[in-house]
């Protein structure tokens, strides 16, 4: 059961011209973490009508999750990509904010972090907004990616991920996600077991975003 974990992602496509993205990370591994993750996924689905305000989504999810389980915590990043407004609105609960590669090659580290979920029922989460353009690429990820260590106990790191993103966006989101994972495997070593779950979600802005 070691392959069961607490990392997961979800998409919301219920409204035309809008893509909702949630990436979350539950502490621990195995069945207990997976059960908590399923609760988080249900809580996210219940907030579909409020997805235009990711901060409110996380605030309501946090209130729902508090007191539901003990001995675990949840980090999450919620974003909504609006094609008509050409924007990303996002909010984070103790989770890395996404990276944004502009069509000209510049990489922006988005930054907006709130308290982790299920810790304080009174916590409020704010949302930030950034303009998007055709040719941009977004990368959502869990900290298991940037905190993975090689044989010298060096982190894979945000800078390495940003460098990969800046180097080019050829290929589909699926191919770029595979490239990130391949580089991570090379970094930690082919025979090294990752100590944490890893999630990567890549979204291209080209008319309506394509995701992997």
Tell me what the structure shows.
The chain has 212 residues and is α+β, with helices and mostly antiparallel strands. Helix content is 27%, strand content 27%. It has five helices and ten strands, in the order E-E-H-H-E-E-E-E-E-E-H-H-H-E-E. The strands form two sheets. It has a five-stranded antiparallel beta sheet, with helices on one face. A five-stranded antiparallel beta sheet has the order 6-5-8-9-10. It is globular, with a radius of gyration of 17 Å. The model has no long low-confidence stretch (mean pLDDT 88).
Brief overview, please?
This protein is 27% helix and 27% strand.
Order of helices and strands: EEHHEEEEEEHHHEE
Strand order across the biggest sheet? 1-2-3-4-7
CATH superfamily: PPM-type phosphatase domain
Number of DSSP helical runs: 5
Number of strands: 10
Kindly estimate the percentage of residues that lie in beta strands according to DSSP: 25-35%
Low-confidence blocks of residues: none
Number of domains: 1
Gyration radius, rounded: 17 Å
């Amino acid at each position: 059961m070691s392959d069961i974990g607490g990392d997961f992602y979800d998409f919301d496509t219920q409204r035309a011209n809008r893509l909702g993205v949630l990436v979350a990370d539950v502490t621990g591994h195995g069945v207990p973490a997976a059960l908590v993750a399923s609760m988080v996924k249900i809580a996210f689905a219940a907030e579909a009508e409020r997805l235009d305000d990711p901060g409110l989504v996380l605030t309501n999810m946090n209130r729902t999750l508090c007191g539901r389980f003990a001995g675990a915590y949840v980090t999450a990043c919620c974003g909504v990509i609006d094609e008509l407004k050409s924007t990303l609105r996002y909010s984070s609960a103790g989770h890395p904010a996404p990276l944004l590669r502009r069509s000209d090659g510049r990489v922006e580290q988005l930054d907006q972090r709130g308290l982790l979920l299920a810790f304080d029922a009174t916590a409020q989460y704010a949302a930030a907004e950034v303009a998007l353009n055709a040719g941009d690429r977004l990368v959502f990820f869990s900290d298991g990616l940037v905190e993975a260590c090689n044989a010298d106990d060096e982190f894979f790191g945000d800078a390495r991920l940003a460098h990969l993103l800046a180097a080019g966006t050829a290929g589909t989101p699926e191919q770029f996600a595979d490239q990130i994972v391949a580089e991570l495997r090379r970094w930690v070593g082919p025979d090294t077991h990752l100590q944490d779950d890893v999630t990567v979600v890549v979204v291209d802005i080209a008319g309506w975003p394509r995701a992997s």
